[in-house]
Amino acid sequence: MSVVVDEPAVTDGGGTSRRRRGRALTAVALVLVFAVFPLVMSPFANLQVTLILVYAVAILGLDILVGWTGQVSLGQSAFFGIGAYGVAAGAVHGWPVWAGLLLGTAVAGVVGCLVAIPAARLRGYALGMITLTLPVVAVPLAKRMEVVTGGAQGLNVTIVQAPGWTGLAADQWRYYVVGIGAAIVFALAAALRRGRFGRAFDAIRVNEALATAQGVHVTRYKVLAFTLSSVYGGVAGVLYVVAVQFISPETLVLTLSISMLAGLAIGGLRSLLGCVLGAAFYVVVPNLTGSVSAGQSYLLYGVCLLVVMLLMPRGVAPALGHAVRRVANRRERAAASGE
Amino acid sequence: MNLLQQVLDGLSSGSVYATLALALVLVHRSTGIVNFAQGQMAVISTYVAWTLYDAGVPVWGAIGAAIVLSLVVGALVERFLIRRFEGGEPLAAIVVTVGLLISVNGLVSLIWGTVLKQFPSAFPSGGVGSGSGGTIGYGTLGTIGALLVVVLALNWLFRHTRLGLAFRAVAANPESSALLGLPVGRLLMLGWGLAAAVGALAGCLVAPKLYLAPEMMDSVLTYALAAAVLGGLNSALGTVLAAWFIGVVENLAGTYVSFVGGDMKIAVPLVLMVLILLLKPEGVFGHKEVRRV
């Protein structure tokens, strides 16, 4: 019994190598566009793209838990906050950024693991409620622990300055730092997904009893998925502080968790591209609707969300993949008949 | 302020949570979805009631009209929006209700603005009680009474009418119900309509205590979700008891435990809920689900 993995079946014949070459070319083009983008665009646009990458990492963490393993979480904003406060509080005390990164992600991972050990026995809405408690408790806690968090005002920091030799502005340098950080954690997730862990998570999502029968230690892997997810949330929080140089309790409210879940559904589950697209929706669409009409911005955002879900109930990335495959197949068929 | 008064105040807020939680349970029983927009739908219903009252309609008439209107609109929302996501990816359905929440919030701000509005209480001011024991407001008793009326009415509908029997059949097994000739679609519409109506009542009960604002129900929704999950998401009695428990614990902890205070009092019932769920994952009154391979 093999587990369903959402990978498109590779077609045999002449199409494969052409497709592989096409894919490599696309990757090179993407990297080039990514590298040149901040040099020619405005600081505002750079910040937007940086934020998209930040939220993409957080949504990817959520995808590990929700998409890969089939669990629910409304707690991602709390882990995002732990990572952010870790690096910001460290910076206030004169720590180097890497130490803050380690602190923030380690605390996020430990809290995630501690929550997951008892919660892994639960599923569905019970798990959802338990994770919902995290941001609800985290916001007043962050306001109270003034010594560490700066209270309701939050923390302003100045970290990740562009070195003089680069000649880059702050926004450009932070764009590259966040971009490379995001690329690393995305590559790690992609490797994880293909390996033993990814298959175990798949098995748990599809059928827990069957996974047990196949020798997958369900509880252990659920705790692992939860911990990984919170570590990714923590990393995203660190990257967020790198991007905006600020963190306050208002950042980690439950609404952010819900928006991330919405972003995940918009982008599409179990898709790295989907995580980026979902994050882009979360960052860009409110700006667009705000520029259309300030008073109706929120209404338009909600309507956009509903329209995307109605048109693409499985998310944008699967819909795009489907469209691309159809065009490619048609072209191949045309090439074959023309020969 | 004495203990009895604090407990009754807790029961009163608990009754509001219970009313919205019952709406969540109605939706969950009929369509298997947890509706994150339930609170926001209640907010727009309350604004409709306020508008009618502002135009000169008596309070009870305004609330009644808003409830009836909510019944219709709730049913339409199920038919034209939610229907497409029933039985699909659960996350998609949840996110659609989130989209609904955001849209309705935007709509409320657009129509009525974000300035707080005063909502009239449906109950007379003043209260009963002796001077030494403090007074128990009619509003407090009225809110608890309104919840009891809702519970009894729903109980009568589901246990003693053919319509309720059909609804329960659809909730238990939609496919077999359809084969028996029950109008499944219309009964699901009824579930959402009733939920919106009950939610409208919750909004009108809580609005006089707070001010009428687009975000009025956000924290109420959190408590109602907690109550519904704690009650097992299917049991009306369990939901009401859980909501009362949450209301009382929140009120007592906020008043008597100095460390908790106003900002953390929302956390106390939630943390207790977490502990209870860890001991009884299916909720206090829920049924254990049998899973098959």
UniProtKB/TrEMBL annotation, chain A:
Write down the Pfam families for this protein, in alphabetical order: BPD_transp_2
List the GO terms this entry assigns under cellular component, sorted alphabetically: plasma membrane
Q: Which InterPro entries match?
A: ABC_transp_permease (IPR001851), LivM-like (IPR043428)
Ordered alphabetically, the record's keywords are: Cell membrane, Membrane, Transmembrane, Transmembrane helix
As recorded in UniProt, coiled-coil segments are none
The record's subcellular location field reads: Cell membrane
Q: Which GO terms describe its molecular function?
A: branched-chain amino acid transmembrane transporter activity
Superkingdom, natural source: Bacteria
Q: What is its main location?
A: membrane
Protein name stated in the entry = Branched-chain amino acid ABC transporter permease
Q: Which organism is it from?
A: Planotetraspora mira
UniProtKB/TrEMBL annotation, chain B:
Q: Does the keyword Transmembrane apply?
A: yes
Q: How does it sit in the membrane?
A: Multi-pass membrane protein
Q: Which CDD domains match?
A: TM_PBP1_LivH_like
User: What stretches pass through the bilayer?
Assistant: 6-26, 33-53, 59-81, 93-115, 135-158, 190-208, 220-246, 266-285
Keywords of the record: Amino-acid transport, Cell membrane, Membrane, Transmembrane, Transmembrane helix, Transport
Its GO biological process annotations read:
amino acid transport
The record, for InterPro entries, names: ABC_transp_permease, BCAA_transport_permease
Please tell me one Gene Ontology term that the record gives under cellular component.
plasma membrane
Kindly list the places in or outside the cell where this protein is found, as annotated in its UniProt entry: Cell membrane
Tell me a Gene Ontology molecular-function term this record carries: transmembrane transporter activity
Residues in a coiled coil are none
Domain of life, per UniProt, equals Bacteria
Which family would the database say this protein is a member of? Answer: Belongs to the binding-protein-dependent transport system permease family. LivHM subfamily.
- Which PANTHER family does UniProt cross-reference here? ABC TRANSPORTER PERMEASE PROTEIN, BRANCHED-CHAIN AMINO ACID TRANSPORT SYSTEM PERMEASE PROTEIN LIVH
Protein name, please? Branched-chain amino acid ABC transporter permease
